[in-house]
Automatic annotation (TrEMBL):
One of its GO terms (molecular function) is efflux transmembrane transporter activity. This is Efflux RND transporter periplasmic adaptor subunit. GO terms for cellular component: efflux pump complex. Residues 55-220 form the Multidrug resistance protein MdtA-like barrel-sandwich hybrid domain. SUPFAM superfamilies: HlyD-like secretion proteins. Belongs to the membrane fusion protein (MFP) (TC 8.A.1) family. Residues 1-26 form the signal peptide. The keyword Signal applies. Keywords: Signal.
Length: 383
């Protein structure tokens, strides 16, 4: 409807001017919204905590003194960066000792191999006795053959025994090498445990040590996390668990800014808490809207409650008088009238539900101008 202009007399104009402010509203100057009725399941707001997508606590695996600390809380690092290092002087000394034992065992194995080859090609059992001249010649021609014939000596058995003894020496040397190598591997593992590398790109959330601290195995060094992707951890009552499924999209309200953001069900834990009767559920949070440790309220559908049946209006239609929310309803003679309401939950696309104060079918100003609103309020007060 266009702007309607009424002709009035000068006397009447002077009378009206004392009661109505200079800002005059007509129906065509504003955009009305017809109050609609919300349909759908009721929701319950559950508080949760923002947590990193990945978080690890790096602990000391070997005793030692902290000699290197990469940074402080808030510092970011790439995957593989050295974060904490313990003093490894004692481990390096043990490794050098194990290397010496390995070299000794290797030399013993080579010596045992030489002895085995010597016995294989030049058996000691067939060598002549020491000495020169006729006695030695007599022994080779008469004494040893007679010992073999009489059965008092068996050169074949002696040769096999000497070969077996040389083989045992080789085996012992090989075992000594294996033991030394195993010792070196164990020391190398401890040397790797003496340093803590960044397992992924992330940031230090909390450090428990300083350079110079003496650590024992099991003591925490620092907490490291990936804060690029965040999640919300919520303890959901068991009765609400059947209405949720993974990849389901819901809404969450940030505690600091009051912003409503979409969240997605990322993980539903398979078991419930036997005492609290709740199920832990993780929700994926959009990037850059919050920080670890923040409080967030997630709106979870409640299938056990009656269906939601509240009026819905645009959030831009609400004007606050102090702390009281109100809207301008189209009244008699098409004039907007201020009415206080009770605001419910925020909905999609910038709409909010109204718990009381409005009925379906009434018309409210979608986005009342400040001048119009204040003008009609002043007019109502004067009347």
């Amino acid at each position: 409807m266009g702007i309607q202009i009424h002709a009035i007399t000068l006397a009447a104009a002077l009378t009206v001017a004392s009661a109505i402010p200079l800002t005059v509203w007509a129906e065509g100057d504003a955009d009305y919204f017809t109050v609609q009725q919300a349909q759908g399941a009721s929701t319950v707001s559950l508080g949760g905590t923002v947590i990193p997508y990945k978080e690890v606590t790096l602990s000391a695996q070997v005793p030692g003194r902290v000699k290197h600390l990469a940074g402080i809380e808030g510092d970011t690092f790439e995957k593989g960066t050295l974060l904490v290092a313990l003093d490894d002087s004692e481990l390096l000394a043990k490794r050098n000792s194990a290397l010496a034992q390995l070299a000794t065992a290797d030399a013993q194995m080579r010596a045992a191999g030489v002895q085995y080859n010597r016995e294989l090609w030049s058996p000691q059992s067939k060598q002549s006795m020491g000495g020169m001249g006729l006695p030695n010649l007599f022994d080779q021609m008469f004494t040893r053959p007679m010992e073999g014939m009489s059965g008092t000596r068996n050169q074949g058995v002696e040769r096999r025994a000497d070969l077996y003894n040389s083989g045992v020496q080789i085996t012992q040397a090989q075992n000594a090498i294996l033991a030394a190598q195993s010792q070196i591997q164990a020391i190398d593992a401890k040397l790797r445990d003496a340093i803590s590398l960044a397992p992924f790109d992330g940031v230090i959330l909390k450090k428990h040590v300083e350079v110079g601290d003496t650590m024992q195995p099991g003591q925490p060094l620092l907490v490291y996390a990936d804060v690029e992707y965040l999640q919300i951890m919520v303890d959901v009552p068991a009765r609400l668990r059947p209405s949720l499924y993974e990849q389901m999209m819901l809404q969450a309200e940030l505690d600091v800014t009051g912003q409503v953001v979409p969240v997605r069900v990322a993980q539903i834990f398979p078991t419930a808490d036997s005492q609290r009767h709740t199920v832990k559920i993780k929700f994926d949070l959009p990037q850059g809207v919050s920080a670890p440790g923040m409080y967030v309220k997630v709106r979870v559908p409640d299938m056990t409650a009656p269906a939601r049946n509240h009026p819905v209006i645009p959030s831009t239609a609400i004007r606050y008088n102090g702390s009281l929310p109100g809207v301008y309803v189209q009244g008699k003679n098409n004039r907007p009238e201020l009415r206080l309401i009770r605001v419910g939950e925020s909905l999609d696309n910038g709409y909010v539900s109204v718990l009381s104060g409005l009925s379906s079918g009434e018309r409210v100003l979608r986005n009342p101008a400040n001048g119009v609103a204040s003008g009609w309020a002043s007019s109502a007060e004067k009347r």
